[in-house]
Design goal:
- A six-stranded mixed beta barrel has the order 2-3-8-5-7-6.
- It is an alpha+beta fold.
- β6 and β7 form a beta hairpin.
- The protein is 57% helix and 20% strand.
- It has 17 helices and ten strands.
- It is elongated.
Length: 413
C-alpha cells in the first residue's frame, strides 16, 4: 500500500526538529488524546459491564428466574403445582418461598428486614448463598435457626448463637386491637454475597418456621423457578402459563426489574457516546497538527513534486504520517485500558491505601468489590472507531498537500 519512499518521508516528518517543535508538540498531544480516550472508554465500559453482570448474577442467584404467585392471597396446595411446574421443559428446579417484611428487634434497637422462608435443601441449592457462608453451615439452618447477612451482623454486633426477635406487621385481633406477632429466632448462619442490599436486610428462615410465624399453615407466597436459560425465557413462560392458568400468575425477572436494567442500559449508551467525544477531540488535534505540517513543508512538497512525486504519493505520505500518530495512540491506549480493567480491584485497593479514603462505598454502589468485565467485541469496536477517526482526520490535510501547486510554493523562494 505504501512504497519505501512514502514510508521514509512519513518517518522523517514524524521525527521532530527544533524548527518544527510546535508541530511536534501538537502531534504529541494528539497521540495522548487518542491514547487516553481509548483507554478511558475501555475501562468505563468494562466497569459498567461488570456492574451489570454482577448485579444480574446476584439478583438471579437470590430471586430466581421466574416467580409463580397465587392470583389471590397465599398459594395453598402448592406441592401439586410445584410438581407440574417442575415438569415444564427448561425448568431446573422449583422452590416454595415465603417472603414478607418484618421489624427486627434487638436490645431495644429496631430495624426493618425482609424475611425469606425457604427449605434447608433449597437453601443449600442456592450457590450464591451456600458458598458465601462466613460463619455456621447449611446443616445449622433448621428449626428456629436463621441466616443473616454480614453487614447486618456487623451493624448489630450479632454472632452465632445470638437471639433476635422478629415482629410481623400482620398481627392477631384482640379486644384491645391488633397485636403484632413476635417470635425469637437464633442466628445460626452468617453469609456474605457481596451485595449491600442483601447482606444488610435479608433474613433466611426455615420454611416451616416461617409458615408458623406468618400463620400460613401449609401455604406459601410463591414458587421460585430456576431455568436453564435465564436470558431468554419466552418459550418456557409460554409453556408454563397454561400449567398454572387459573391458580397463579407467572412473572419473569426481567419484568420485575425492568426499570432498573433499562436505566443501566441507557447510562451505558450515554457514557459510550460521551467518552467517544474524547477520541473525536483528539482526532481534531490530528487535523490541526497535519495542517500545520503541510503549511510548514510547503517548499519540500513542491521540490518533491518537481522531482517526479505524484499527487497520489504526496497524499499517501501525509495520510501515513497522521495515521501513524492515531494508530500508535489507539493501540497503546487499548493496552493500557485492558490492563487497567483486568486489575481494577487491585488498583482500587492500592489507591485506597495510598490516599486513606474509601473510593468505592458498598452502601452507595451495592457491591463490595469493584467489578470489571472486558467485552472483547466492544474493545474491537472501540479500536475500530479510533482507527477510522484517526485515518479520517488525515484525509483533508493530505488532500491539501496533494493539491499544492509547486509553482506557487516556489515562487518566492
Amino acid at each position: 500500500m505504501f512504497s519505501p519512499f512514502e514510508r521514509m518521508m512519513a518517518g522523517r516528518y514524524l521525527r521532530a526538529r527544533k524548527a518544527e517543535g510546535f508541530v511536534s508538540v501538537i502531534a504529541g498531544f494528539s497521540f495522548l488524546g487518542i491514547m487516553l480516550g481509548v483507554a478511558t472508554l475501555i475501562i468505563v465500559m468494562s466497569v459498567m459491564n461488570g456492574f451489570r453482570q454482577e448485579l444480574i448474577t446476584r439478583i438471579l442467584g437470590l430471586n430466581g428466574h421466574i416467580n409463580v404467585y397465587a392470583a389471590n392471597g397465599p398459594l395453598y396446595d402448592y406441592e401439586a403445582l410445584r410438581l407440574r411446574v417442575g415438569d415444564v421443559p427448561g425448568v431446573v428446579s422449583v422452590a416454595p418461598v415465603i417472603e414478607a417484611q418484618v421489624l427486627m428487634s434487638l436490645n431495644g434497637y429496631a430495624n426493618g428486614a425482609l424475611v425469606r422462608g425457604i427449605t434447608q435443601d433449597d437453601f443449600a441449592k442456592k450457590p450464591i448463598v451456600s458458598t458465601s457462608i462466613k460463619e455456621g453451615s447449611v446443616a445449622d439452618f433448621s428449626g428456629t435457626n436463621v441466616a443473616i447477612g454480614r453487614i447486618m451482623a456487623d451493624k448489630l454486633k450479632l454472632r452465632i448463637g445470638d437471639n433476635i426477635t422478629l415482629i410481623s406487621p400482620k398481627g392477631k385481633a384482640s379486644p384491645f386491637g391488633t397485636i403484632p406477632r413476635s417470635r425469637a429466632f437464633t442466628v445460626a448462619v452468617i453469609f456474605d454475597v457481596g451485595m449491600y442490599e442483601y447482606d444488610s436486610s435479608f433474613i433466611f428462615v426455615p420454611l416451616e418456621a416461617a409458615q408458623i410465624f406468618f400463620q400460613l399453615e401449609t401455604a406459601v407466597n410463591s414458587l421460585e423457578v430456576i431455568t436453564n436459560s435465564p436470558q431468554d425465557m419466552r418459550k418456557i413462560v409460554s409453556l408454563m402459563t397454561p400449567v398454572v392458568q387459573g391458580r397463579a400468575d407467572v412473572h419473569q425477572w426481567q419484568n420485575t426489574n425492568t426499570s432498573f436494567f433499562n436505566a443501566l442500559q441507557v447510562e451505558r449508551n450515554v457514557m459510550f457516546l460521551i467518552l467517544t467525544l474524547i477520541i473525536i477531540v483528539a482526532a481534531f488535534n490530528i487535523i490541526s497538527s497535519m495542517i500545520m505540517l503541510v503549511k510548514d513543508k510547503g517548499r519540500d512538497i513542491a521540490v518533491l513534486r518537481t522531482m517526479g512525486a505524484t499527487r497520489r504519493s504526496m497524499m499517501k505520505i501525509f495520510v501515513l504520517t497522521g495515521a501513524t500518530i492515531g494508530l500508535a495512540g489507539t493501540f497503546v491506549g487499548a493496552l493500557i485500558g485492558i490492563t487497567f480493567a483486568l486489575n481494577i480491584e487491585s488498583i482500587r485497593q492500592f489507591l485506597q491505601n495510598l490516599t486513606n479514603t474509601e473510593l468505592f462505598s458498598e452502601e452507595i454502589y451495592f457491591l463490595s468489590k469493584l467489578p470489571a468485565v472486558v467485552n472483547w467485541h466492544e474493545v474491537v469496536a472501540i479500536v475500530a472507531i479510533a482507527v477510522v477517526l484517526s485515518v479520517g482526520a488525515t484525509l483533508y490535510p493530505a488532500w491539501r498537500a496533494a493539491r499544492l501547486d509547486p509553482v506557487e510554493a516556489l515562487r518566492y523562494e
